[in-house]
Specification:
With about 350 residues, this protein is an alpha+beta fold. The protein has helices spanning about 65-80, 95-100, 110-125, 220-225, 230-250, 265-275, 280-285, 290-295, and strands spanning about 5, 45-50, 85-90, 130-145, 150-160, 165-170, 175, 190-195, 205-210, 255-260, 280, 300, 305, 310-315, 320, 345-350. The chain has a single domain (about 5-350), classed as Deoxyribonuclease I, Chain A. Helices cover about 20% and strands about 25% of the residues. The strands form three sheets. Strands 1-4-5-3-2-16-15 form a seven-stranded mixed beta sheet.
Length: about 350
């Protein structure tokens, strides 16, 4: 599956003659209005990256639930301003895990189909005219039989339907996996890429990824004080990722987001920032040191709290705020919906179109 554009009759869209005016994405930080308008010629964008744990957090990842999909869709629809782009990690297609507790509404339905149906229904209920297009990027499939999957893995990119799609690799996502031992058992890691043209005429690229955990076969895993982002396998995947971004980006305006399974200040993070030149948007906006950024957890496992999710970009983007982003474990709109919290960022594209 690549593009999932739902027909008006099935997504709860409201008639054009009764729809309210489209909400501006240039609201003040926090999305409550009253902020300064963007600079002349600048284009504001609100971008979310979110590991949704296969919509199965309530069952500790064992099975997806319809309640989780509905709650996440409803929470996204309540955001003000609404996001322009939503990049998701850990999204399924069809499997025993995705449908055992969440029966499909029709035989071909996938998790992303259901999410989009729920998102558009929630927007219609709030009398919002905005609609979105979604792309799914398959990563790995664990099969029971040729027709039955135990579970699947993948990424998704959801974008406003006012954006023109210049290119995407949904049919063949780029494999970034570092494989040395037990190659047949290693879960495939990928990078999704979509090149957009904004309604203003600006072009920009979005790269969405999910790096492996540090390998337990490396010496660093057992001898170092920190592990996340310190694995040699992770650093190799970061190198492949950076090379892919360099080769495939269609413009100088790009973001690289996702679950990097890497701490701020780790070898992976420093490689991407110091050697490749990516900007860490969160640390830049909040004026945080590496240790201060580590103290803001984006994910939790048992009693551990870790900063694993990142928003990197080219230097051309002007980052404005991360309004609506809450640390994992704190109260907030997305609390309890996943073992990660979303990073909700707002930036401006450069004013020129060159």
């Amino acid at each position: 599956m690549t593009e999932r554009r739902l027909p008006p009759g099935s997504n709860g869209s409201t008639p054009e003659d009764t729809a309210p005016e489209r909400a501006s994405t240039s609201a003040a930080p926090g999305g409550r209005g009253g902020g300064e308008p963007p600079d002349d010629g600048a284009t504001p964008l609100r971008i979310i990256t979110y590991n949704v744990r296969y919509f199965g957090h309530g069952t500790r990842g064992i099975a997806s639930t319809s309640a989780a999909i509905t709650r996440i869709a409803t929470t996204l629809a309540r955001l003000s301003p609404l996001p322009d782009l939503v990049c998701l990690q850990e999204v399924e297609t069809q499997s025993l895990r995705s449908s055992t507790m969440n029966p499909r509404w029709h035989p071909e339905e996938t998790q992303l189909d259901r999410l989009m149906t729920e998102l558009h229904a929630a927007l219609a209920q709030r009398e919002r005219p905005e609609r979105y297009v979604a792309y799914y990027f398959p990563a790995h499939t664990y099969r029971l039989t040729s027709r039955t999957n135990i579970y699947t893995t993948g990424l998704a990119v959801i974008a406003r339907d006012t954006f023109r799609i210049g290119h995407h690799n949904a049919e063949r996502p780029h494999d970034i996996t570092h494989r040395r031992r037990v190659k047949s058992l290693k879960q495939t890691r990928i990078c999704a890429h979509v090149s957009f043209e904004h309604e203003s005429g600006q072009s920009f690229d979005v790269f969405n990824t999910h790096l492996s955990l540090p390998s337990v076969f490396s010496r660093e895993f057992w001898t170092g004080e920190a592990r996340m982002g310190f694995g040699p396998n992770q650093l190799e995947e970061a190198r492949v990722l950076a090379d892919f971004v360099r080769r495939e980006r269609r413009s100088d305006n790009f973001v690289v987001v996702g679950d990097f399974n890497s701490l701020p200040g780790s070898p992976v993070d420093r490689f991407l920032r110091e050697e490749i030149g990516f900007v860490d948007a969160f640390a830049k906006v909040r004026c945080l040191s590496e240790s201060e950024a580590r103290a803001f957890p984006t994910a939790g496992f048992m009693n551990l709290r870790m900063h694993l999710d990142h928003v990197y970009s080219s230097e051309r983007l002007q980052w404005l705020d991360f309004a609506g982003t809450q640390p994992f474990g704190h109260r907030g709109d997305f609390a309890g919906l996943s073992d990660h919290v979303p990073l909700i960022a707002r930036c401006r594209l450069p004013g020129d179109r060159g």
